[in-house]
Amino acid sequence: MLAIRLDKEIEQELDMLAKVRGSNRSAVVREAILQYLEDNEDLALAKQAVSQMKSTKSLKQLRKELGLDS
Fold first, then answer.
1. pLDDT at 63
2. Which residues contact residue 10 at a Cβ distance below 8 angstroms, ignoring those fewer than 6 apart?
3. Is the residue at 44 inside a domain?
4. Is the confidence at residue 24, as pLDDT, over 80?
5. Which residues contact 18 (CB under 8 A, 6 or more apart)?
6. Cα gap 20→44, rounded to integer Å
7. How many beta carbons lie within 10 A of that of residue 18, not counting itself?
8. Residues sharing a CB contact under 8 Å with residue 27, sequence separation 6 or more, in sequence order
């Protein structure tokens, strides 16, 4: 279980969003946290992939190597 303190304004926005979605505060916050964690995982994987790239090629060079340009 997690307890957090929110400003009154944030609580009101959260309540409005939950109402529009036909949900409750906990579900909206849970969804937001899961999305945040997934985004951070994606970012970490992207950074890792970039750091593992051995070389880069221009689009023109790549198209030529793949035989896409005559």
1. 93
2. none
3. yes
4. yes
5. 24, 25, 27, 28
6. 33
7. 16
8. 18, 21
Domain count, the chain: 1
On whether residue 29 sits in a domain, the answer given is: yes
> What's the Cα-to-Cα distance from 1 to each of 4, 30, 44, 62, rounded to whole Å?
10, 11, 27, 51
What does pTM read for this prediction?
Answer: 0.67
Three-class secondary structure assignment of the chain: CCCCCCCHHHHHHHHHHHHHHCCCHHHHHHHHHHHHHHHHHHHHHHHHHHHHCCCCCCHHHHHHHCCCCC
Query: Does the residue 70 lie in any domain?
Result: no
CB 18, CB 24: distance < 8 Å: yes
Q: Which residue has the tokens 């304004």?
A: 9
